[in-house]
Amino acid sequence: MVSAFGVQNSSLTISNTHQLLFLSHISTSTRFFFGPLISSVSIIAENIVDDVKYKKVDHEEYPDYIKNKTAGSTNIIYVIGESSNPGRYGIYGYGKDTTPNLSQMDRDGKICVVNNVHSPAAQTRLAVPMLVSFETPLQRGNLFKYKNLIEMAELQGYHTYWFDSQMQNNMWNKPFGYLAKYAEVLQTPEENNTRFPINEGQDEKLLPAIKHYFKESQERNFYVIHLMGNHLPYSARRGDEDNPMVDDYDASIYNVDDTLQSIFTLADSYLKDYKLVYVSDHGEVVGQGHGFPSSDNEMYKIPLLMNDASWCAKAEQLRNNNHYFSSDLTKLLVLEMMGYSVSDQHLRDAVKNSDFVLNEKEDAIRFSELRDVPLPQHP
């Protein structure tokens, strides 16, 4: 039975969206919100090692395929969603108008939408680091070997910010909580050097801090905004009481649309000149979750949109021969927004390898070999 923040059975109640309490009598076949999992014993062991592994250190190097540096965009806003199925977005053709604001911006030419996008993993702890570092499904060690995108931004003279409504330090969140710590300004439920409090799962509570730092912006700025988005339990993601969507997952999409509209409005008011990227960490099998063993590709399918058509065109040029764009390559677009250039040879290699994704065991598999689940067009 699904509880407020997880799944409940006769021996265990799991609370706190990404955190699990493991007791000695629990079997390794325990089920929770994103499906049957890896052995709980191995996760506990990994958590102990992680305390050392995910310690913040300044990195000296970045890959040699990063070439010339020029002046980048003045402001870059990198919004990372959560558990978002594009098939439930009105802007992607869903039969319900779950994205009225984004759809209007699309009609007005203010944003562009990239179709057929997949994530490099179906768990947040695996996917987000690949969006904000040089880690890939085939090069896991790059997370610790090279500078991450926060460090690369600072190297280019950007002020850096990380606004997050997810927990950072438990066993599920450490990989991206580790990256968040590199930002100058950090607002999370556990670590916060702003004057704006934030509780887990309250995306709308990020907006006062975002407004403040947009308004006080100076020189060049790189903002990472990490949402709880559409994560289970969907009923907790409805947002305002006047949300018109009956279905809870549809309501969570409607709420993300509202949050993104607020971010755009604040950026228009205070930043003027900015590039914005919105991408979900991974997808969702609605009603079941994500990150569980499956031969289907649905939990990898995600939305991607930007506020500059030229960058959507660049994404189109990075499609694999399976006609999909992997969000693992989004970091290369963001790096170019910062003023870096990426060697042509690496772009070819990255596209060639972009079909690889990580499964629930963290094994690299081919997305193109999973069974395709078409996006729903009507409710």
UniProtKB/TrEMBL annotation:
Record Pfam families: Sulfatase
Superkingdom field: Bacteria
Localization annotation: Cell membrane
GO molecular function: hydrolase activity; phosphotransferase activity, phosphate group as acceptor
GO BP: lipopolysaccharide core region biosynthetic process
Primary residence: membrane
SUPFAM superfamilies: Alkaline phosphatase-like
Membrane topology according to the record: Multi-pass membrane protein
All copies of domain Sulfatase N-terminal, residue ranges: 75-327
Positions in coiled-coil regions: none
Entries under Gene3D superfamilies matching the protein: Alkaline Phosphatase, subunit A
Record keywords, A-Z: Cell membrane, Hydrolase, Membrane, Transferase, Transmembrane, Transmembrane helix
Gene Ontology cellular-component terms listed: plasma membrane
Full protein name: Sulfatase-like hydrolase/transferase
